[in-house]
Hints:
The chain is of the alpha/beta class and 300 residues long. It has 2 domains: 3-59; 66-297, Carbonic anhydrase (Beta-carbonic Anhydrase, Chain A, 3-Layer(aba) Sandwich). 46% of the residues lie in helices and 10% in strands. The chain is built from 10 helices and 5 strands. It has helices at residues 3-25, 30-61, 71-86, 97-103, 123-126, 146-157, 173-180, 190-199, 216-233, 235-242; strands at 111-116, 134-139, 163-169, 247-253, 260-263. Helix 7 (173-180) packs across helix 8. The longest helix is centred in the first third of the chain and has 32 residues, at 30-61. The chain is globular.
Amino acid sequence: MSSGRSKLILAVLLGWSVVAHAETKRTPDLTIVTDAEQARAAEAEKEKALAQRAAVSVAADSHIPAAGKSPRESLELLRNGNQRFVEGKAVGQRRDEKTRSELATGQNPFAVVLSCSDSRVPPELVFDQGLGDVFVVRTAGHVLDPGPIASIEYALEHLGARLIVVLGHESCGVVKKALTTPVGKSAGSVDLDRLVAKIKPYLSSFRTASTDKRMRGPVKANTSGVARELVRKSAIVRTRLQLQEVALVTAIYGLSTGQVEFNMWDLDYSGQAEVDATPVVEAIPAPGVRKRRGMAAGGH
């Protein structure tokens, strides 16, 4: 190989070496890197903002109104209202235009009343309460299905109610039907049969209503059974009771007197067993009615 050609090859090799060395030390393209980082940061901020917005929305949807009346105060409001009703001194409060206007933007009832659909026992009138005071759920025989349970849960979770009353009444036609319909016989329709079937288990200790014309014993047994069922089936109700945030009592309405008798509710809050314990709210029986423990367990 000639000397000139060797020098040329050597020069080329040296040139490549210099170029390669320069490439390894070249500063990265900061413009490209910065743009990519900014894009990622912007995307992260966007996701964070969306998450915060969603959290605020969920919090607003599940917001529980500030605690108002205590369970005991709520019970006394119902008791006092019923006494006015009995004495013919009902004032029909909070049913005016001003109240309607105030309630147009929201409600905050202090109590939930689960009652029979009987036309003779409208809870708002029986307790002399006004618009927005009580959240009423009514079914024949105050039986529980998903709809009534969800309604009660909604009142506790979203409206701030702190007292649940399971209200039965004397001479309940549905309870009588459950007592008098023989096993295996139809009550008149498929749906009536289902209704009767839900009540019958609570009346197992009663053979006939003939010795109790007003059926107070069977009605009390039914209200107690429904109370146990509610606590057993609703985790929301059960938890609120365990935390003593709400209270549950049973009651029976006298058709001729108009008097509501609030009963002891001697059950543990798991809804699984009866215990001799004072409930969160120990109702004081109506005047002239001797308080007995275990009444709500079907005191008959």
